[in-house]
Amino acid sequence: MTNLVTDFKAQMALARRNQILQGAAQVFAEKGFHKATTKQIAKTAGVSEGTIYNYFKNKRELLFALLDMVGTQPLQSIVHEAPPNDPRAFLTTLMHNRYQLLKTHGPLLAPIMAEIFTDSTLRSEVYDMLIVPMAKLVEQYFQTQVDDKRFRSINVMIITRTLVGALSFNMIFKLSNIDPRYAQISEDEMIEEIVTLFLDGILAT
Amino acid sequence: MTNLVTDFKAQMALARRNQILQGAAQVFAEKGFHKATTKQIAKTAGVSEGTIYNYFKNKRELLFALLDMVGTQPLQSIVHEAPPNDPRAFLTTLMHNRYQLLKTHGPLLAPIMAEIFTDSTLRSEVYDMLIVPMAKLVEQYFQTQVDDKRFRSINVMIITRTLVGALSFNMIFKLSNIDPRYAQISEDEMIEEIVTLFLDGILAT
Amino acid sequence: MTNLVTDFKAQMALARRNQILQGAAQVFAEKGFHKATTKQIAKTAGVSEGTIYNYFKNKRELLFALLDMVGTQPLQSIVHEAPPNDPRAFLTTLMHNRYQLLKTHGPLLAPIMAEIFTDSTLRSEVYDMLIVPMAKLVEQYFQTQVDDKRFRSINVMIITRTLVGALSFNMIFKLSNIDPRYAQISEDEMIEEIVTLFLDGILAT
Amino acid sequence: MTNLVTDFKAQMALARRNQILQGAAQVFAEKGFHKATTKQIAKTAGVSEGTIYNYFKNKRELLFALLDMVGTQPLQSIVHEAPPNDPRAFLTTLMHNRYQLLKTHGPLLAPIMAEIFTDSTLRSEVYDMLIVPMAKLVEQYFQTQVDDKRFRSINVMIITRTLVGALSFNMIFKLSNIDPRYAQISEDEMIEEIVTLFLDGILAT
DNA sequence: TATGAATGAGATTTCATTCAT
DNA sequence: TATGAATGAAATCTCATTCAT
User: Any CB–CB contact under 8 A between B132 and chain A?
Assistant: First the structure.
């Protein structure tokens, strides 16, 4: 068997794997992890139930595989994209980047988030894959700014979590339809408001 | 049948209802909603499976009932407890209050949170019951401060969600064991750091 | 709840358990363990599939439970029934007893025997439950006879297994329809032939 | 196409067939018939799953084919090898021969035996292939000895089954590890004990 | 002929809910 | 009202077999 054939087969396998993942993503997004049945996933993906198990050990592995898809999102570049001496630009860029990530993968992340509260393995995985990279990046950035006296003395760990939580919460409100008032605010406005808060606080000057 | 007897019966029924809810709370906290079985709940509560269905329509209603228990937490008092002209005191008091709430009900809230991502009814209920009261309170407070020129002009809606998100995220980190560094920070320190951020921002002066 | 009620319930439970075991026995006998489905067993027993699992942890436990039924067969009495000084009577009685056991439980033992070759746990259980008691009894009897000089010096372990094997094999032939010639031989004749072989050997005198 | 080519092809096909059977034998021996998967057999044999079905109609045919391999064991020669007038030599030779057969094919015979209890076709086949040839041979030998007055008058059919059962049972004990005491007895001793029993019985003289 | 991906029927097991006592 | 045995739908996963390449 030549390499060409091998490559072709590998391509096909990858395509089929993705086909299944797409189906799983869709059904998970619609029904959540538990109410999504393998039968439904198979039907949506256009394969038989058995085929799913040729590519994934079990239903849970589908969730992990989907997480991997989301997790492999570039983040490091932000450090270089934004001018290092302009914290406003940095934070703004970072937040837009995360917003786009959630906008893209939001429906998929919901069932993953749901499982997080129950499944400690998944919890660790999400933490290591989605939280840690961002947190580390932001912490380091904050520390640098503190060292350079551009930021006052802060607990970078807490402030970082504060940032992540603040952003996440607002994103969820903006991307969901919970509060209709959010529809009237643009992504830019929302992010600017948060950035300004972090930089200047809310006290009148 | 006299009122006395009726009352006694009602009391018994209420007691039995609570008994069941205690059992459900415990098992939900341990196993999460889906892996909690009614058999297990019945055993933990010390009743039979059938009895559960005399007090609750189905397993899902147990979750809603538990949410009601958590939701009926006093919050309004904070406004009066803290001096209205001292935003730092207000925010600090508020945050401690919420922290205590999560500390008390955290294990029970986890399975509820997990279901939120799947169950839109539950989502609305949690939103109306836990988020809205706090959000409304904080929004009003913020608006007052803005009107009184103590706060600069802000989008109170966004800043409020930012506050809630920031606090929630930090609380989760502190109450879980995800990041060991959080163990070395006291509740007071954590809340102070967040409050200061909100009031002053992070820029060096 | 009075003891009467408890007893009644226990009786019912035992009856239901037996009802299921009867169904399992029948289906196992017809189809063998692997081809017997729980659905079929449930139908035959006249209960729902779920009910089976209220009484037995899994399908395999049905097999073990059936084995227990077969295993609890009296054997010790033989020692006392037969005159101790009459080896011919002892062996004859023993063999008839075992023959009756197999005649009664044969169809049920077949699927158990089949699993023995695959399932080492079952193998041990059958060995301990069916082989060991008989073997021990016979070995002791043989040893006594040797000590009393009624038997020549023999390896009681081997001779015992020889006896068990010899009897088992003949019983299987007699109870199955493999060899039609066996139909023309009575149980008495068969056992007498074997007993005489053991006592006298086959050499012409 | 010449005969040479045809022959070559036939040789290849036979080789491939054997290759598959070797794999099947190994996996059946390890896992038993039911737990052996065609995937595992294919891997062990070094072929693809599909190829198996080019040579065998289904998984069950593999078992039958393996049985054929075991069954084609020479036995007739024994009659000529052992001095006809020396029953002890004859029985001893016969038993050693069967013991070697089981020693060689034992692991493979186990899964076959397991299926016997369920599969009547297999049962007949094993009977015709393994039991009948030996039984017939032994029966004839016994009859001759009876006719020659070297053996007393016996039911050759029963005594033959007795012999086969006696030997089989002891062999299984010796080849398995069920009873550790069997490890301390040599093959020679075991067989001699059985032979002596058959010839002389166990009564003290 | 060889491959191995795809199939899909079918099996075991779980568990929320019902209902006769 | 309390019980808990019975239910049976439904879900996951396995694996012998097929078939396009």
Answer: no
**For the domain that residue D169 is a member of, what is the CATH number?**
1.10.357.10
Q: With a cut of 70, say whether residue A56 has pLDDT above it.
A: yes
Task: Tell me the CATH number at B20.
Answer: 1.10.10.60
Nearest C-alpha in C relative to D118: C32
Which of chain C's residues have a Cβ under 8 Å away from the Cβ of D116?
A: 114
**Residue D2 above 60 pLDDT?**
no
Give pLDDT, residue B50.
96
The alpha-carbon gap from C136 to the nearest alpha carbon of chain D, in Å, equals 12
Beta-carbon separation of D118 and C32 below 8 A: yes
What is the rounded CA–CA span in Å between residue D129 and residue D197? 27
Distances in whole angstroms, Cα of residue D59 to Cα of each of A70, B41, B81, C111, D68: 43, 47, 79, 21, 15
Q: Does A47 lie in the same domain as A104?
A: no
The distance of C77 to chain D (nearest Cα, Å) reads 24
**Distinct helix (H) and strand (E) counts, chain A:** 10, 0
Same-domain pairing of C113 and C158? yes
Q: Which two tokens stand for residue D59?
A: 């998984």
Q: What is the span of the domain harbouring residue D9?
A: 3-58
Q: From residue A42, how far is each of A17, A23, A33, A58 by CA, in Å?
A: 12, 7, 14, 13
B141–chain A Cβ distance below 8 A for any pair: no
Tell me which H or E stretch contains D13.
helix D3-31
Q: Does B198 touch chain A (CB under 8 A)?
A: yes
The answer on D183 and D117 residing in a single domain is yes
Query: Are A49 and A90 in a shared domain?
Result: no
Give, to the nearest 10 degrees, the angle between helix D187-200 and helix D156-175.
160
Q: What are phi and psi of B176, to 5 degrees?
A: -95, 180
Q: Which residues on adjacent β-strands are paired with residue D203?
A: C151
Q: Quick check: C72 pLDDT over 70?
A: no
Q: Is residue C19 part of a domain?
A: yes
Q: Looking at the structure, tell me whether residues C113 and C185 fall in a common domain.
A: yes
Which chain A residues are closer than 8 Å to B197 by Cβ? 154, 159, 162, 198, 201
Nearest-by-Cβ selection for A201 from B150, B161, B201: B201
For residue range A80-108, list pLDDT tens digits in order: 777 768 899 999 999 999 999 889 888 88
Neighboring chain D residues of C167 at a CB cutoff of 8 Å: 165
